[in-house]
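In the laboratory, one determines a bound structure by crystallizing the protein with its ligand and collecting diffraction data. In a computational setting the workflow is compressed into a single prediction: the sequence and the ligand go in, and a structural description comes out. We illustrate the idea with glutathione.
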Amino acid sequence: MIELLTADTPNGKKISIMLEEIKFDYKVTKINIYKDDQFKPEFKKISPFSKTPVIIDHENKTSLFESGAILIYLAEKSGKFYDKDQRTVINQWLMGQMAYVGPMLGQHHQFHHYNPGKSEFGEKRYFKISKRIYKELDERLSHSKFLAGKDYTIADIATFPWIARHEWHDIGLKKFKHLTKWYEEMSKREAVQKGYDLLNKGDQIPKV
Ligand SMILES: N[C@@H](CCC(=O)N[C@@H](CS)C(=O)NCC(=O)O)C(=O)O
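The predicted complex, in structure-token form:
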């Protein structure tokens, strides 16, 4: 059994979507990052940067932090969404999500959604970078069905929950027709819908 310790955020939803996709038995333990649960000593033991998500694989008593590393672990364990012959390409799109797409959109959330009016520089900077990311993903998806090629992979799973925050981004997802097509295709998947509702509260994937 896999225990997913997380807050209900895009990084957490990556893992619940993956667990639904591979049909592993799992349970979610909620970490309340707004009440500093992530800094508790027992959590820091398995998450040295005090970040969610983390998983514990109770079958072999292994714990993992960093959502990209967790996706790779689950993909290798299940043999799904990480084809051996495609790994060079999948890794690039996965690392790009981890190092660029997620952190930049995350900053855009901070300045534009949570703290508007506090820093003109921050708001402008991350708005511009976020628009650029939409354009770059749209361009990639104009000639590739999924991010890493013709198959749905962990790179798509990692990116989807960030684009699912499109209403917060105020960029206008529908202006990006290839990104929209990819988003709508992924939204139709039952596992994506179930995993998106990480805490079973009835959370629906935002429509375009
Ligand atoms: N690169 C990390 C980022 C994780 C991350 O930023 N987690 C946030 C929630 S989405 C968090 O735990 N924040 C609490 C804090 O920084 O104190 C991953 O992808 O796992």
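Strands lie at 2-6, 26-30, 54-57, 62-65. Keep in mind that any predicted model is a hypothesis to be tested, not a measurement.
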